[in-house]
Amino acid sequence: MSKVAQAKAAIKVNKQVKAIVKEAKKNNDIAGTAAEGKSQIIAAVLAFVVGVLGIHRFYLGYTGIGIAQLLTLGGCGIWALIDLIRIIIGDLKPKDGGDYTTKF
Questions:
Q1: Mind listing the pLDDT tens digit for each residue in 75-99?
Q2: How far is CA 19 from CA 5, 14, 16, 25, 27, in A?
Q3: What is the DSSP string of 41-102?
Q4: What is the pTM (predicted TM-score) of this model?
Q5: What residues pair up with 39 in beta bridges, in sequence order?
Q6: What angle do helix axes 63-76 and 78-89 make, rounded to 10 degrees?
Q7: In angstroms, rounded to a whole number, what is the distance separating the alpha carbons of residues 76 and 94?
Q8: What's the domain of life for this entry (predicted)?
Protein backbone atom coordinates (compact mmCIF):
# COMPACT_ATOMS: atom_id res chain seq x y z
CA MET A 1 0.00 0.00 0.00
CA SER A 2 1.41 3.38 -0.94
CA LYS A 3 1.97 6.18 1.52
CA VAL A 4 -0.80 8.26 -0.10
CA ALA A 5 -3.31 5.44 0.30
CA GLN A 6 -2.24 4.96 3.92
CA ALA A 7 -2.67 8.68 4.60
CA LYS A 8 -6.16 8.68 3.05
CA ALA A 9 -7.13 5.62 5.08
CA ALA A 10 -5.82 7.25 8.27
CA ILE A 11 -7.80 10.44 7.58
CA LYS A 12 -10.96 8.39 6.97
CA VAL A 13 -10.49 6.46 10.23
CA ASN A 14 -9.77 9.71 12.08
CA LYS A 15 -13.05 11.22 10.84
CA GLN A 16 -14.96 8.10 11.88
CA VAL A 17 -13.42 8.18 15.35
CA LYS A 18 -14.29 11.87 15.74
CA ALA A 19 -17.89 11.15 14.71
CA ILE A 20 -18.13 8.32 17.25
CA VAL A 21 -16.68 10.49 20.03
CA LYS A 22 -19.05 13.33 19.16
CA GLU A 23 -22.06 10.98 19.27
CA ALA A 24 -20.91 9.52 22.59
CA LYS A 25 -20.58 13.01 24.09
CA LYS A 26 -24.05 13.88 22.82
CA ASN A 27 -25.53 10.73 24.37
CA ASN A 28 -23.68 11.41 27.63
CA ASP A 29 -25.07 14.96 27.74
CA ILE A 30 -28.59 13.64 27.25
CA ALA A 31 -28.15 11.04 29.98
CA GLY A 32 -26.66 13.65 32.33
CA THR A 33 -29.62 15.96 31.76
CA ALA A 34 -32.11 13.21 32.54
CA ALA A 35 -30.28 12.34 35.73
CA GLU A 36 -30.59 15.93 36.95
CA GLY A 37 -34.37 16.04 36.56
CA LYS A 38 -37.02 15.90 39.26
CA SER A 39 -39.00 12.87 40.36
CA GLN A 40 -42.78 13.02 40.53
CA ILE A 41 -42.73 10.38 43.25
CA ILE A 42 -40.35 12.38 45.46
CA ALA A 43 -42.38 15.55 44.90
CA ALA A 44 -45.59 13.74 45.90
CA VAL A 45 -44.00 12.24 49.02
CA LEU A 46 -42.66 15.66 50.05
CA ALA A 47 -46.08 17.24 49.47
CA PHE A 48 -47.75 14.52 51.53
CA VAL A 49 -45.28 14.46 54.43
CA VAL A 50 -44.21 18.11 54.76
CA GLY A 51 -46.61 19.83 52.37
CA VAL A 52 -47.64 22.45 54.91
CA LEU A 53 -44.03 23.67 54.97
CA GLY A 54 -43.89 24.01 51.17
CA ILE A 55 -40.78 21.82 50.86
CA HIS A 56 -42.14 20.25 47.66
CA ARG A 57 -42.24 23.73 46.08
CA PHE A 58 -38.58 24.30 46.94
CA TYR A 59 -37.78 20.88 45.45
CA LEU A 60 -39.59 21.77 42.20
CA GLY A 61 -37.83 25.15 41.98
CA TYR A 62 -40.64 27.48 43.05
CA THR A 63 -38.76 29.26 45.84
CA GLY A 64 -41.11 32.23 46.17
CA ILE A 65 -44.21 30.10 46.48
CA GLY A 66 -42.32 27.78 48.84
CA ILE A 67 -41.61 30.70 51.16
CA ALA A 68 -45.26 31.78 50.99
CA GLN A 69 -46.40 28.26 51.88
CA LEU A 70 -43.86 28.11 54.69
CA LEU A 71 -45.18 31.36 56.18
CA THR A 72 -48.87 30.41 55.83
CA LEU A 73 -48.41 26.73 56.74
CA GLY A 74 -49.49 25.68 53.29
CA GLY A 75 -52.60 27.84 53.38
CA CYS A 76 -53.66 25.96 56.53
CA GLY A 77 -53.13 22.70 54.65
CA ILE A 78 -55.53 23.46 51.81
CA TRP A 79 -52.82 24.76 49.47
CA ALA A 80 -50.66 21.73 50.27
CA LEU A 81 -53.56 19.35 49.50
CA ILE A 82 -54.21 21.05 46.18
CA ASP A 83 -50.50 20.84 45.33
CA LEU A 84 -50.47 17.13 46.21
CA ILE A 85 -53.36 16.48 43.85
CA ARG A 86 -51.72 18.57 41.10
CA ILE A 87 -48.46 16.66 41.46
CA ILE A 88 -50.22 13.28 41.32
CA ILE A 89 -52.17 14.14 38.16
CA GLY A 90 -49.05 15.68 36.61
CA ASP A 91 -50.32 19.26 36.42
CA LEU A 92 -47.64 20.75 38.70
CA LYS A 93 -44.30 20.29 36.95
CA PRO A 94 -40.76 21.50 37.76
CA LYS A 95 -40.13 25.20 37.19
CA ASP A 96 -37.43 24.59 34.56
CA GLY A 97 -40.18 23.58 32.13
CA GLY A 98 -39.01 20.00 31.85
CA ASP A 99 -40.97 16.90 32.64
CA TYR A 100 -40.48 14.55 35.55
CA THR A 101 -37.74 11.95 35.10
CA THR A 102 -39.54 9.43 37.30
CA LYS A 103 -43.33 9.21 37.13
CA PHE A 104 -46.05 7.15 38.80
A1: 898 999 999 999 999 999 999 888 8
A2: 21, 9, 5, 10, 12
A3: HHHHHHHHHHGGGTHHHHHHT-HHHHHHHHHHHHHHTHHHHHHHHHHHHT-S--TTS---SB
A4: 0.65
A5: 102
A6: 120
A7: 23
A8: Bacteria
